[in-house]
Amino acid sequence: MSNRQPISTAPKDGSEVTVYWVDGDGVANESLARWDAGNGGWWAFTDSTTQKKIEPTSWRPASADDEDQ
How far is the C-alpha of 36 from the C-alpha of 42, rounded, in Å? Predict the structure, then answer.
């Protein structure tokens, strides 16, 4: 597993990365997400059909293991 990096260094080319963020309830989360320039932010699926704009604090490259989840 790669070390976490500051979100400011994450790719903003639409590629999927693993991000780390805290939700409104203060719960730490790890999600696959993409930067969406058109919507100006990071978006992650919270379930199989719902996307949410999030404010991640760090990231790492998505691994092959992440894609199987």
Answer: 6
Encoded amino acid at 9, one letter? T
CA-based torsion, 10, 12, 13, 14: positive or negative? positive
Phi and psi angles of residue 9, each rounded to the nearest 5 degrees, phi first: -100, 0
3-state DSSP of the chain:
CCCCEEHHHCCCCCCCEEEEEECCCCCEEEEEEEEECCCCEEEEECCCCCEEEECCCEEEECCHHHHCC
Of the chain, the percentage scoring pLDDT greater than 90 comes to 78
Distance of alpha carbon 51 from alpha carbon 63, whole angstroms: 21
